[in-house]
Write a structure and sequence with these properties.
Helix content: over 70%
Strand content: under 5%
Number of helices: 6
Number of strands: 0
Distance between the termini: 20 Å
Oligomer: single chain
């Protein structure tokens, strides 16, 4: 069954967008000593290349709440569970779209980690692992 045939609620769509854009925000927060704006830009560009139903949801221009945590820890407390929830939601409805979402977020994290054209530092590498763990926790 294709996710395109499944009616997602506004809350479902918000969870998907929060998870994906939140992952990029976490990578930017982990790059606070470098150039977080470059990290965020590269990750966001990768998200805009998403296809399928995931691509349509991520392309929606609705404001996201709770992505302005005062600390990286506060942001992570909101985003990491959203990543797991997004994967669980998609796996229930369409394993193919769940795989698409995981691949999209992973690509965005990799793009963010390589924004400086160098090997990601320890903080970025650790954040990427946490994001991957949250995706795989579903």
């Amino acid at each position: 069954m294709s996710l395109a045939l499944i009616a997602l609620t506004d809350q479902d769509k918000n969870t998907l967008r929060t998870a994906a854009y939140g992952a990029v925000s976490l990578m930017a927060a982990a790059d606070a000593a470098g150039k977080p704006h470059k990290t965020a830009t590269q990750g966001t560009i990768a998200l805009t290349s998403a296809t399928g139903q995931v691509g349509h949801v991520l392309a929606e221009k609705t404001p996201l709440k709770n992505l302005k945590g005062t600390t990286t820890a506060a942001l992570a407390e909101h985003v990491l569970p959203a990543l797991t929830a997004a994967m669980q939601l998609l796996q229930r409805h369409s394993p193919a779209e769940a795989a698409n979402f995981r691949a999209t977020v992973t690509t965005a994290v990799q793009a963010a980690a390589r924004a400086h054209r160098a090997e990601p530092g320890p903080a970025l590498a650790a954040m990427a692992r946490k994001i991957t763990d949250a995706l795989d926790a579903a």
